[in-house]
TrEMBL record:
Signal peptide: 1-24
Listed GO CC annotations: apoplast
Keyword annotations from UniProtKB, A to Z: Apoplast, Secreted, Signal
Domain of life, source organism: Eukaryota
Major subcellular location class: secreted
Protein name (database record): Protein EXORDIUM-like 6
Family affiliation: Belongs to the EXORDIUM family.
Pfam name, any one: Phi_1
Compartments where found: Secreted, Extracellular space, Apoplast
């Protein structure tokens, strides 16, 4: 019996020592998360509500606790994360039996928040001082995305704002980071409430072109705060899905092969911009789509964040369904939306021409009568 017990113990020890080696052949390594570190530069004067909304929205991107209300902002962000499936994941992260992989999470956090109420570079945003703002927001930090938030008193028409959008992202040509010059991604977002609400604050303000449609109360009570969230959400989604930028989101090397094997045909650039002014199912020009309205505040929303906060965020192009995904969970065919928009614009132009012709005929008739 003593010999049998010793032999049994030896077998157990041998199994425990060798089992990790055996299982490692079939179990993939834990795929590393990406990190989108944001450095916020508040350029100008902002209300407390505006600052709170921005921080709460960013924190809501990764908030997927079960106790929260649905639909969640984090569900929308998971569509952003799915864009990393365009690449072939490296062998060590791949499931052997099913050959399935899970897209890396993109953890978003604010690593710095800087306020410049005096606006050291002036109140007019240009290409030159825009680059200076990016450098100021970046500082000496590496692998950080500066987000420049422009107060209502700052004009940005010189860089293309108020022409269908009030945000932009890109890469600066040269940015001096820790003594090295490299391309630096950035996001610039403006508060459009004063400068161009008709362009960028819809549906909280009447649109200045196309079908006006219905306007809604902002969920926070401040048009500028929630209009800025729509622009910020668009910029964050477009940045995090851009293949020229996502590779830099990992602390070391990315968990996938980035050259020659990505399925670019179904993954588009700027997926949130693609779905501009689409907030819910059944959307068409002048109509947000089916969204929700808080019965207590009257604020319009389509997603929930931390602390049961409500947000209205834009839809995003879903590569799996090839349509616009919104937080309500319904996909929208943007081809039909664009076709409808073109039809409505043509009909609107035709109506304007008819009215103009009728007025001209009436004026001619009046002039003929007066001459007689």
């Amino acid at each position: 019996m003593a010999f049998s017990s010793s032999s049994s113990s030896l077998s157990v020890i041998t199994f425990l020592l060798l089992s990790p080696l055996c299982f490692s052949r079939d179990s993939p390594s834990q795929i590393p998360d990406a990190t989108l570190n944001l450095s916020l530069l508040w350029y100008g004067q902002f209300t407390p509500v505006q600052k709170e909304r921005v921080h709460d929205f960013i924190e809501s991107l990764n908030f997927d606790a079960k106790e929260g209300l649905d639909p969640k902002v984090s569900a929308w962000w998971k569509v952003v994360e799915s864009y990393q499936e365009r690449y072939e994941v490296k062998e060590i992260y791949r499931q052997k039996k099913s050959n399935q992989t899970v897209a890396p999470r993109i953890k978003v956090k604010v690593v710095r928040s800087y306020v410049d109420e005096k606006m050291m570079f002036g109140k007019d945003l240009t290409i030159d001082n825009g680059e200076k703002l990016v450098e100021t927001a970046t500082g000496n930090m590496s692998k950080v995305v500066p987000v420049i938030l422009l107060a209502p008193q700052v004009t940005a028409q010189h860089v293309g704002f108020c022409n269908g959008t009030c945000q932009e992202y890109g890469l600066t040509i040269n940015s001096n980071i820790k003594g090295q010059k490299k391309k630096q991604p950035y996001i610039i977002v403006s508060d459009p409430e004063v400068q161009c609400p008709g362009e960028c604050a819809w549906p909280f303000h009447i649109a200045n072109k196309g079908p006006h449609g219905m306007t809604y109360q902002p969920p926070s009570g401040e048009i500028g705060a929630d209009a800025m969230i729509i622009q910020l959400a668009t910029g964050l989604a477009d940045v995090a899905t851009n293949p020229a930028i996502t590779e830099s989101l990992f602390k070391s090397e990315p968990p996938y092969n980035t050259e020659g094997n990505h399925k670019s045909s179904i993954y588009i650039v700027d997926p949130a911009t693609k779905c501009t002014r689409v907030f819910g199912s059944g959307a068409f020009p002048g109509f947000t789509g089916r969204i929700r309205v808080d019965p207590l505040t009257g604020g319009a929303f389509n997603s929930h964040g931390i602390n049961h906060l409500k947000f209205l965020i834009p839809s995003i192009w879903d590569p799996k369904t090839k349509s616009c995904y919104n937080s309500i969970g319904v996909n929208i065919d943007m081809g039909k939306v664009n076709e409808l928009q073109n039809t409505m614009e043509d009909e609107q132009k035709s109506l304007v021409d008819e009215i103009r012709t009728a007025l001209e005929d009436r004026r001619n008739t009046t002039e003929a009568i007066s001459v007689d």
